[in-house]
Automatic annotation (TrEMBL):
InterPro entries, A to Z: DUF6601 (IPR046536)
Name of the protein in its database record: Subtilisin-like serine protease
PANTHER family per record: HET DOMAIN-CONTAINING PROTEIN-RELATED, SUBTILISIN-LIKE SERINE PROTEASE
Segments passing through the bilayer: 214-236, 256-289
Amino acid sequence: MAPFKFPSTDAFDKLDDKSIPANAMEQLQNELACVVLDELYPHLDLVARKSGSHIDPLHVHAAKGRSIVVFEHARLHLVWHLNKVFLKPIPACLLRESFWSANMEAGGQMQRQAVGFMRTYAFLIQHQSDFAIAQREGLLPPAGRLTFAGFEAFIKAFRHAPDDEVSLRWHFGQLRLNWLDWAVRIFRPHIPKQYGGMLRQFYYEEQFHQTRQFLYEFGAQLLAVFAAVSLILSAIQVALAAKPDNPWTGFAPTSAWFSVVVIIFLVATVVLVGTVSCVVLMVQIGYGLRSRGRRVL
């Protein structure tokens, strides 16, 4: 297979600011490395679809109610959580051919990371509306003379780059954060200290930086459990209080049976919800196992 060839269409010359920092290569080596995801790669297809093209265009993210959160490290690029998606902007240096030829070894790890990262933008920006969103959100370097047609002519070469030309992380597209959290807890990859605090072994990327955020995330579930337990205890109390010597002899057995029915209903509901959750999980794991080793582009 022929090695990746940088696009002949020039996009760098249309930038408003053509200066490149002296430490640009050093920054890229740090920011494009996806250490944890590369280590999770053998298991990643259990929690995500193995397809480098499984990437929603920017206008689709907007339609799904996801706001764009700019994050300069690629470890969160294309990771989404609830109503937000994390995206790393394109560094200006990756639009310049001379930078690639001077710093990227053909087929080397750095080039594979860069090609994989740039390939994601070939799927993120597919329409004029996507291009407008990218400019508005600061995902592209300021370029008053760069049009959507010009950007498409440049980026389309990356769209057709095969998986053999990209690093392991980019064999997958967008990833769901809570599934990555479970992958971290189960498969226990090594997570560098700079990627998180004391809870980094339990979260791919910790989202609870305040107690209020934690309570907001889990408060509803805790209240539901508390309400269910309270109802069970109340039903048991009614059943025990319904004695035969009660003046309302007809009401006592009715209360006792009603309490038993409430308990059975609550237990059945918990079992049903747990069973459905397990079935959904097994279906997703089964899909991951069936698609393991299958390449989708």
